[in-house]
Amino acid sequence: MKRGCIWSAGLLWWVTALTPAAAQVGTRVGYTLLEGSYFVDDCPICDRVPVQLPMRGTFELVLKQDTGYSAQYAVRSVDFTAGTGPSPDYHVTGQGTFTRSGEVAVQQNMTLSAQVRDATTNHTAFFTNNTPDVEQPFPLLQVDLTQTNGTDFQSFRLHLFAAPVWEIWFSTAKGFTSTNRFAPTNQISPGDLLSNRGRVVKPNSELVSRLGLMPPVPDLGLDAVAVQGHGEILFSIPANTFSETLGLLHHGDLLSNRGLVVKRNYELLQAFEPLSSSDAGLDGVQVMTDGQILFSIQSDVSNIYGQTLSRGDILSDHGTVYMTQQELLAHFQPTSSIRDFGLKAFCILPSGEVWFSVQEGFMDGQLGPIQAGDLLSSLGYRVFSNAALLAAFAPADPSLDYGLDALFVVTDTQSPKPPPRITSSSQSGGYMHLGWDGEGAVFQVETAPSLSGPWTPGSEIVPDLSGDSPCAMGAGGRGFYRLRQW
Fold it and tell me: How many domains does the chain have?
């Protein structure tokens, strides 16, 4: 007997902001471990150096109670791997609790009940934090956890440094060959929009397909990217090209994957009254909630008032400098402090923290060499090295710096939006094809065999208004779907 999918358009779910005013019980926020997280395997009575390995992974915080003075969360879906090679040496899964309390002297406490697997054994491990001291501003989370049921021969420790991020989307300045994909998909272009989870979000051919370019359409590269409401992708290209429908497209123009020129480069700059109408390039871009377009340029620009707009500054199309490079680098210690390193990509997080990359690498007095492809934070830490960002793709030569050109961050810590709506559905074989619309930038279908769950991802996070999801089958052949948006 052929079994179909049953769905309900009323099953819609969306994210509220992680702030005291907007957070609701049950709100779940995805976290990603950042560079600096590590796993320690120690033998307290052995005469050996503890094994310390870099750790990556994800978990979720689910709000259980917020009194204003104290907030209690469930820690769920812990999934960490530790090691330096392609195969992890340790795999940590589990769940726990997290509490933040206080107004002036804020304290935090975390517990974790986990399974720690290595190549031969599976350990049940219980962890708690060493100290309640808080070192990073929330929603960043930094905590040291020690195993409470360890033995004299083996005890584990975890150092977690995490941000409320689901995925980081970016492009590289150079193409590379992925060793964990089959040809021809193993050839990654500098024009492709990538995810740090190891997938191509949008190939360059799809981004530029509606720009009216004469075939065969070359790979145009990808300099800046912003994803806005209803899944529209705005971007720039690194070199001029001609469109049969739009005319000459400059490398500083802001384009749309829907086949439009959103703003010419001179329109972005005109409020500054530049001396020249020359194209200054467009390296980074972000559209704010008030419609203001923030951007960075490839080359310096002088205006009629004698002001120099630096390639390392974040500018506004309203004619103001949103943030200078000196402000971006205020918590770093570059040995060449008078040099302008440029600004290749940036993303302003809801907390006000800025993640960015520079056009030229530099030596930092605390972090050492900074590469142009590293992802940095305005708080003074390295979010990810270029190698870590690309690790899920397993580049053939992981030692190279492939650059970091475009940047977009999928995070739960943003203002709530009206719920999206499912607009169409059709079933073919074992898949349900859904169409939807919403004010979110990106979307994900979740499925469950019953209304009570468990709900699991039915699609990747996508900047699309439709997608296919495997049929979610429960009792009687019923499946349920809900749509998440960011």
Answer: 3
168 C-beta neighbours (distance < 10 Å), count:
23
Q: What is the chain's mean pLDDT, rounded? A: 92
User: What is the domain extent for residue 101?
Assistant: 28-163
Strands (E), 187-280: 187-188, 193-195, 199-202, 224-228, 232-236, 241-243, 247-249, 254-256, 260-263
Whether residues 399 and 463 share a domain: the answer is no
Verify that 85 and 203 share a domain, yes or no.
no
- Do 171 and 158 reside in the same domain of the chain? no
Q: Do 353 and 451 sit in the same domain of this protein? A: no
Contacts of residue 216, Cβ cutoff 8 Å, sequence gap at least 6: none
Give me the CATH number covering residue 381.
Answer: 2.110.10
CB within 8 Å of 449: residues ≥ 6 apart: 472, 473, 474, 475, 478, 479, 480
- Burial class of residue 22 (count of CB atoms within 10 Å of its CB; 0-12, 13-18, 19+): exposed
Tell whether 10 is covered by a domain. no
pLDDT value at 147 more than 50: yes
3-state secondary structure of 388: helix
Q: What is the DSSP letter of 105?
A: S
Gap between the Cα atoms of 100 and 143, Å rounded: 12
- Single-letter code of the amino acid located at 32: T
> Are both 243 and 283 inside the same structural domain?
yes
Q: Please say whether the dihedral angle defined by the alpha carbons of residues 149, 75, 93 and 34, taken in this order, is positive or negative.
A: negative
pLDDT digits (tens, 9 = 90+) for 278-321: 999 999 999 999 999 999 999 999 999 999 999 999 999 999 99
In a domain, 11, yes or no: no
61-119 confidence digits (pLDDT tens): 999 999 989 999 999 999 999 998 778 899 999 999 999 999 888 999 999 999 999 98
Asked whether the beta carbons of 421 and 461 are under 8 A apart, the reply is no
- Are 151 and 32 found together in one domain? yes
Q: Beta-strand (E) ranges in 324-361?
A: 345-348, 354-357
Q: How does pLDDT run across 331-362, given as a tens digit for each residue?
A: 999 998 778 999 999 999 999 999 999 999 99
DSSP run (H or E) holding 298: none
Residue 331 neighbours by CB under 8 Å, 6+ apart: 378, 379, 380
